[in-house]
């Protein structure tokens, strides 16, 4: 008995790829992007930064080590769809609790394999990210292409409100004797960031993206963290005043979308990259040390270096592939950020020093504050 299910991927520029359905039944739309990581598909699926996107994996075999509950990066998968050359149906790993198709079906993620992911990637690198649709229910090519054309643009889209928590919570509430208290704004935060802040001696209070500067300061934190997240940073004008309201009040550390939001709060702008940076092999120059860090990245927008006031903000890191801004720091206040993901493992620990820098900034800030009069 042939149990193969049909699926089709269609893009806004008229390309159609026939393949096999390996996830949930249905139809999904989003911005088609590619990721060059050879492992980490579970982390990619559960990274809220992928909201609104259909991810093509360039590695030809995905799913061979299965899925487990320990490696998730958020409360649920947020990716719109997954595209693979070959999906492994029978994983072999002692940590596996499910196969990838089982996980995709459980969480209603539409996925396709049996397609030419090399051709897709070359098209995206040449023409840029494309709107697309993946369907297991509609097999009319013209219909699918039109659906792709009619789907929302990533530029101008706010996905932060959809992925952020609605109520504050404390990460690891059983933690005792933390040296620092950190308020983290959840724009789509990854769990490993919270794990590393916890390991660095921080009690972490996670706030919704719409929380105010006053909400953050009411917790009397030692530092403020601005998280990663999805969508267009230029579509978040309700967040910039909050971040500006924290300038000079506490040390601030931003990652990915948090870095881009800081760029806007500094008075700068962002722009959309042609096909973005997604994968575990992005070379970044650290201008302070001269070292090249191999970094994990997932973003489709970048801070415009020319839009920043260089007398106030300096560029600390640069992408060696396209010279885009990968890090910046305020010259007067303890505020810094990076575009890439130091909580991920390429290098494997090239960028972990950034969490130590944040801790150092908080420690110095605390020593400079006047002591209370008893």
Termini separation (Å)?
A: 80 Å
For this structure, what is the CATH class of the largest domain?
A: Alpha Beta
CATH homologous superfamily label of the largest domain = Class I glutamine amidotransferase (GATase) domain
> What does the average pLDDT come to?
94
Structural class: alpha/beta
Number of helices: 10
What's the SSE pattern? EEEHEEEEHEHEHHEEHEHEHEHEEEEEH
Number of domains: 2
Fill in the CATH topology of the largest domain. Answer: Rossmann fold
Describe the overall structure.
The chain is an alpha/beta fold. The protein folds into two domains: 6-150, Glucose Oxidase, domain 1 (3-Layer(bba) Sandwich); 160-365, Class I glutamine amidotransferase (GATase) domain (Rossmann fold, 3-Layer(aba) Sandwich), CATH 3.40.50.880. The chain has helices at residues 41-45, 100-106, 117-127, 141-150, 160-163, 191-199, 213-217, 240-244, 257-265, 353-368; strands at 6-11, 16-21, 27-35, 53-57, 61-62, 81-83, 86-87, 110-113, 130-135, 169-171, 180-186, 202-208, 223-226, 252-255, 270-286, 292-303, 313-319, 325-330, 335-338. The strands form three sheets. The protein has a ten-stranded mixed β-sheet, sandwiched between helices. It has a seven-stranded mixed beta barrel with strand order 1-2-8-6-4-3-9. Strands 5-7 form a two-stranded parallel ribbon. The longest helix has 16 residues, at 353-368. The radius of gyration is 21 Å and the shape is globular.
């Amino acid at each position: 008995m042939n149990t193969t299910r049909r699926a089709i991927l269609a893009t806004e520029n008229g390309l159609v790829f026939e393949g096999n359905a390996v996830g949930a039944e249905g139809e999904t739309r989003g911005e088609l992007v590619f990721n060059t990581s050879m492992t980490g598909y579970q982390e990619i699926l559960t990274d809220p930064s992928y909201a609104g996107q259909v991810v093509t994996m360039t590695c030809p075999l995905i799913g061979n080590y299965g899925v487990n509950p320990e490696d998730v990066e958020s409360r649920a998968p947020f990716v719109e769809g997954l595209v693979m050359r070959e999906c492994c149906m029978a994983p072999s790993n002692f940590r596996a609790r499910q196969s990838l198709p089982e996980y995709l079906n459980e969480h209603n993620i539409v996925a396709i394999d049996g397609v030419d992911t090399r051709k897709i990637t070359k098209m995206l690198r040449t023409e840029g990210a494309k709107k697309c649709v993946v369907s297991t229910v509609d097999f009319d090519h013209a219909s699918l292409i039109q659906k792709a054309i009619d789907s929302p643009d990533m530029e101008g889209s706010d996905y932060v409100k959809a992925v952020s928590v609605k109520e504050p919570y404390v990460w690891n509430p059983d933690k005792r004797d933390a040296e620092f208290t950190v308020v983290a704004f959840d724009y789509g935060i990854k769990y490993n960031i919270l794990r590393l802040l916890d390991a660095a001696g921080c009690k972490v209070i996670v706030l919704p993206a719409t929380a105010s500067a006053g909400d953050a300061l009411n917790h009397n934190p030692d530092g403020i963290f601005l998280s990663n997240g999805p969508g267009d940073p230029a579509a978040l004008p309700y967040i910039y005043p909050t971040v500006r309201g924290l300038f000079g009040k506490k040390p601030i550390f931003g990652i990915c979308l948090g870095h881009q939001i800081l760029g806007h709060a500094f008075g700068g702008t962002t722009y959309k990259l042609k096909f973005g940076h997604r994968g575990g092999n992005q070379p970044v120059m650290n201008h302070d040390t001269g070292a090249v860090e191999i970094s994990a990245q997932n973003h489709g927008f970048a801070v415009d270096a020319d839009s920043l006031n260089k007398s106030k903000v300096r560029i600390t890191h640069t992408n060696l592939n396209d010279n885009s801004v990968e890090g910046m720091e305020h010259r007067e206040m303890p505020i810094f950020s990076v575009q890439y993901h130091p909580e991920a493992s390429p290098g494997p620990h090239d960028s972990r020093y950034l969490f130590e820098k944040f801790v150092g900034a908080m420690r110095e800030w605390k020593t400079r504050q006047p002591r209370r009069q008893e």
